[in-house]
Amino acid sequence: TWSAVPAGPPDPILGITEAFKADTDSRKINLGVGAYRDENGKPYVLNAVKKAEEIITAAKLDKEYLPITGLAGFTKNAAKLAYGADSPPLNQNAIAVTQSISGTGALRIGGAFLARHYPNPKIIYLPTPTWGNHIPLFKDSGLEVRNYRYFDRKTVGLDFDGLKEDLKNAPEGAIVLLHACAHNPTGVDPTQAQWAEISDLVAEKRLFPFFDMAYQGFASGDTARDAYAVRHFVSQGHQVALCQSFAKNMGLYGERVGAFSLTTKDEEERKRVDSQLKIIVRPMYSNPPLHGAHIANTILSNTELYQEWEGEVKGMANRIISMRERLYELLTNGYQTPGEWGHIKSQIGMFSFTGLKTEQCKALAEKAHIYMTMDGRISMAGLNGSNVEYFAQGVDAAVRG
Ligand code: PLP
Ligand code: TYF
Hints:
Keywords: Transferase. By secondary structure, this protein is an alpha/beta fold. It is 46% helix and 14% strand.
């Protein structure tokens, strides 16, 4: 039956982990997947999460199904975290929100909702480059995928003129995907002034802003600051779509906790949209998993745990920043590696887009047991005090050829 099914390629990011696991060298480093590691290179379960789990265990909850759109307390608190407690649509009960299978599931629900109900051209513009999974995800959802310029290799920064030109040339009413903060893979975000211009342009062209916020807290260490773009757009009267993930900022990767939301005109419209979100979700997976949503909700609704969590997010963000500084120092003043490395410090979030060429990335894997994606992206969280020097040495050797 399946004799005609061709073998497909591995996921370009998750495939790296397989190669890493197969490597037996003790010096090996995995900088492929964006998953936080502590100073000892180990996965990190947040204290706030451990305490939330103790509270949940003590409560001896049952295992009944959640409603189709998930745990009501969780979705309310997730929306509050993203839009802000004083958000007008939030307080007017005008945000339709559903729990989702992490950020990917949120994107997929959003893609399906727009493919079914969006009244304007079902075309979505993605930045170049973007998270690799965005492209098949939106295609499989039934949207036409196009691109807008985002990253300028020459300046290793934002191609703001290219971005504006491409959005100006987009058909009126098209959808535009925006990384809310900590752009993956480049680590380059618009400034607040540039966000204001993008918001004006989106209004002028009647584009539909679709935010992917997978790293709230990881860009600046401050969850409110990282939500600036979303909140600014809402304050300017835009209706937005928003995908949230708690994989990174709560370290809940495998628990698959996320939310998808749409701001609507008023409560009556919100109810209609809500009913259609349920119709999208039901034939996909019926209702979402329980445990992770309870963890996130316990943290978001308990003042003490919330404060502890905020401190831990800041701690993770700051450790990454200190690794950026150390790596920059080692390449610039230590090894005096040819090239300009300022972008390692100026980029934000979990990743650095190093500028290393595919050949150099391959050489790093083969000669130094250092694994990263072939576009030169490294997960900064994989670096620590014990391996950053070995990494810098490997980069230096790869650059010098
Ligand atoms: N969007 C972006 C930009 C990402 O980098 C990721 C990966 O973490 C996701 C969405 C979705 O991740 P998850 O499904 O693990 O929440
Ligand atoms: O970009 C990353 O590394 C994270 C994790 O199919 C990830 O977003 C990578 C690939 C994938 C799912 C998650």
